[in-house]
From TrEMBL, chain A:
Pfam families recorded: SCO1-SenC
Name of protein: SCO family protein
Keyword Nucleotide-binding: no
PANTHER family listed in its UniProt record: ELECTRON TRANSPORT PROTIN SCO1/SENC FAMILY MEMBER (PTHR12151), LINALOOL DEHYDRATASE_ISOMERASE DOMAIN-CONTAINING PROTEIN (PTHR12151:SF25)
Keyword line: Copper
Record-annotated Thioredoxin domain positions: 35-196
UniProt key word Transferase: no
Similarity comment: family membership: Belongs to the SCO1/2 family.
TrEMBL record, chain B:
Lineage: Bacteria, Pseudomonadati, Pseudomonadota, Alphaproteobacteria, Hyphomicrobiales
Span of the signal peptide: 1-23
UniProt keyword list: Signal
Organism of this sequence: Devosia salina
SUPFAM superfamilies: DR1885-like metal-binding protein
Name recorded for this polypeptide: Copper chaperone PCu(A)C
Entry superkingdom: Bacteria
Amino acid sequence: MNLTHLRTVLWTLVAVAALAATGLYVYTTMTRTSQVAGLGQADYQLLTAAGDAFTRDSLKGSPSMLFFGFTHCPEVCPTSLAEMTSWYEALGDEAKDLRSFFVTVDPERDTAAVIDDYVSWTGHVTGVTGTPDEIAKAAQSWGVFYEKVPLEGSDYTMDHTASIFLVNAAGEFEGTIAYRESSDTALAKLRRLLEG
Amino acid sequence: MTLRPLLLALAFATAFSPLASSAQDAPAAAHGEMAPIAIGDIAITGPFTRATLPNAPVGGGFLTLTNNGTEDDRLLSASSPIARDTQIHEMAMEGDVMKMRQLVDGLVIPAGQSVVLEPGGYHIMFMGLTQALVEGETVPVTLTFEKAGTITIDLPVGTAAADAPSGHMGH
């Protein structure tokens, strides 16, 4: 095999690999989109801390952050709320259309008044509660896991999905910010979300 | 209230994910600038708690326990006047799910080793806080060990996002 021939073969292989990679990328992107297209699209009837209805349609109109947690949360929820608040501070005017919702997975303890007290200091986050059945519907629709864990005495705590969901102005899932993700990454994701 | 200190603290907080706490070889590195605290063979270093956000009903206590003895010991229980109930818990992230467990049998401190109670792992859980935890103050906590006995220590209150006692940087 002469050198010219070898070069042709190698370049062909490069082209094949590139095409395969592109095809794979398109395929995974398309399948991923179809997998998450239904996230959050089920019917659920919740209430904000102020007593307004909160449904799938409440997430339409402007982009949002959506977090499922509970007030008796040792670390993840207060840290996430504080980080969300710091991102608003960092984004300033850029975040004027960004809304945030903290949906309780512990509706037995987190009444409208309790959850309102818990999030009101942020100045940006709306507390959301509801009946256990409707909370279950909303959580299931967003692919959120939560479970009651009994403690000594009559107390209990909750295990729960700790990601912040990014929702676009059409009320559709755009991505997540993981717990304790770096601020730079979180801000980049929020800027992409806000640019639509 | 002003959020500036909290936000500044957050801005500077290092976003590391503590590994699930595990026994490490003693001796543990000195933490902060606190005088060493010990009871029996157990040395207690780097105690701290975090300032609570408004209306937070729970809080966590963190410290490192080093067993300088030749026999395993066990942290059986913790109590504090700032909480209706104080327990020993383990937290772990499994994928994107936060999981919490109460350690009803306490926490073993193996002979010659250290066990770290830190954000993201083992911690003392204050439930039903009777007051807000304010940065710069201290809160008392009483620890009972199976062999070493009982000691009351003060946990300095750090920022709401503190990952370590103030004056102690990184891991």
